[in-house]
Amino acid sequence: MKLDELLSIIEKTAADNGINKPMLVGGVPRDRLIGLVDKKSEIRDVDITTGNKDSLKLAILLNKKLEGSRYTVFDDGHVSVDIQGLHFDFSSNFVALGVKEELAKKGKENPSAMELELFSRDFTMNTLLETLNFETMCDLTGEGISDIKMKIIRCPINPEITIGVDPRRILRAIKFSIKFGFGIEDSLKTAMLNNHRKISELPKKFVSDKATEIALLDADKGIDMLIEYKLLPLIPLSKTLSDILIQHRKLVRAL
Fold first, then answer.
1. pLDDT tens-digit series, residues 140-193
2. Cα–Cα distance for residue pair 118/122, rounded to 1 Å
3. Burial 165-186 (b: 16+ CB within 10 A, else e)
4. Percent above pLDDT 90 for the chain
5. In the predicted model, is pLDDT for residue 206 greater than 70?
6. In whole angstroms, what is the distance from residue 227 CA to residue 231 CA?
7. DSSP code at position 39
8. Residues 6+ apart with CB under 8 A from 245
């Protein structure tokens, strides 16, 4: 079954069950705007949101409808459905504590459920919405498209809140910076440094795996950024990361 067919099934399932219109969110709209994805056939990982808790209901209904699909529940509340090599993540509709107050500062006194979710996300470039037919892209924060064009990683609200509620985002910012060649906005840099010790509160394997992934993207930049943000002493070293560190130190001494 092709992606278009599955997205059509998702849209029809939502309509038939009185669920808010599902939208693509996060990686697919971002990567399409950056130019990393030219064809629909290249898309294997899709994030979907309805802007409310119905995203989870939609995932359950889809899993029941698709024979042979696999349904997974994650610790952070979101769920996924895997079918024929395609991975669909359904949003938990997480809303960060303090996001309403932050939106009030921006003049949004009565934000929609979708706005609360999008402004609670990690970075503006991951807040873009796109219809399931890929015809219309929406930028409810008003900053996602421009930040991608300017190649900057920025939080939708005060980064002390964004990073404070989920320190995994420190590693994500570093990864995206290296992967896309984007700069990190100054207030986000400060928040990453202020909250760097919270990395120790995360599962050790997760931290080790993500740090290794960063180093494998670009050993020199990756190690330098892990040092810059005071993370290296807090990271459990995998064998791969240890080997990269040894080689990195050799290069530094050679210079």
1. 999 999 999 999 999 999 999 999 999 999 999 999 999 999 999 999 999 999
2. 9
3. bbbbbbbbbbbbbbebebebbe
4. 79
5. yes
6. 6
7. S
8. 215, 223, 237
Structure tokens at 17: 């069950």
Predicted pLDDT at 115: 95
- Tokens of residue 86, six digits: 């395609």
CATH number belonging to the domain at 1-149, selected among 2.60.120.620, 3.30.360.10, 3.40.50.2300, 3.30.460.10? 3.30.460.10
Give residue limits of the domains in the chain: 1-149, 158-255
pTM, two decimals, is: 0.91
d(CA 199, CA 115): 28
Beta bridge partners, 183, equal 152
Q: How far apart are CA 58 and CA 10, in angstroms?
A: 8
Residue matched to tokens 């038939």: 16
CATH of 158-255, one of 1.10.3090.10, 2.30.29.170, 1.10.630.10, 3.40.640.10: 1.10.3090.10
